Amino acid sequence: MTAQLNPRGDVAVLVPAAGAGVRLGPGAPKALRLLAGEPLLVHAVRRIAAAPSVHTIVVAAPATEVEAVRAMLAPVAPVTVVPGGAERQASVAAALAAVPAGPEIVLVHDAARALTPPHLVESVAAAVRDGRDAVIPVLPVVDTIKEVDATERVLGTVDRSALRAVQTPQGFRRSVLVSAHRSAGDTLTDDAGLVEKQGIAVTCVPGSELALKITRPFDLALAEHLLTTGA
Fold first, then answer.
1. Which SS3 state, helix, strand or coil, does residue 23 take?
2. Closest by CA position to 120, among listed 134, 109, 105
3. Which end of the chain is least crowded, N or C, by CB within 10 Å?
């Protein structure tokens, strides 16, 4: 059954999904790799569409797969699909340009975080709605972190109490994200990083263990296990 987005919603979600995902091994582009028989992108879009505030979803697909991705997502939710770029930043910019008038909150989400729960989408959007310019979901860093030199010699132990692992969706006031991409110089893989370069404050909200990034074969196996337990 196709999900219905909220015509009165104030949130647009951009999903850059044109990356190759070489760390998952050879095969289809990462967003189109299968998880429990369905592409990661399908899982991700299904969960985004379940968030009540979402008005628009725009996916930046591999340029050669736009029609295939459009057909794949049609039974899941009404989604706009545009050709992505060679780099993630170009894909986000292309998706951002396709957002219609209306939504003033824009979230950027990785298809590789395919199990992200809808409540995290709502949490990030709510923080932007409450007046933050830019919001990222984070988790505390639990491993001991060492700083090393070029020869792998340990230089010291980093205080992890001030460190956070960043997830997506990252949320922004629409005007803030548009301005950040227009002013982008060096290519970055993190939209909050573009905003930081503009001198705009970025605020953290609690993330979710389910929003893990599926990057390696082990991550894919873990996500398969989580699905069997009802994630």
1. helix
2. 109
3. N
* Paired strand residues for 206: 138
Query: For 108, which DSSP code?
Result: E
Query: DSSP code of 121?
Result: H
Task: Calculate mean pLDDT across residues 217-221.
Answer: 92
Q: What is the pLDDT of residues 125-136, one digit of tens each?
A: 999 999 999 999
DSSP 8-state secondary structure symbol assigned to residue 73: H
Helix (H, G, I), strand (E, B) or coil at 70: helix
| Angstrom distance (rounded) from CA 160 to CA 179 | 32
CA distance 85 to 64: 11
Report the relative pairing of strands 54-61 and 134-140 from DSSP bridges: unpaired
* Residue 189 to residue 7: CA distance in whole angstroms: 30
Host H or E run for residue 221: helix 217-228
Both tokens assigned to 154: 């340990």
pTM of full prediction above 0.90:
yes
Residue 139: strand pairing partners: 165
Query: Quick one: pLDDT at residue 229?
Result: 87
- Token pair recorded at residue 43: 């899982």
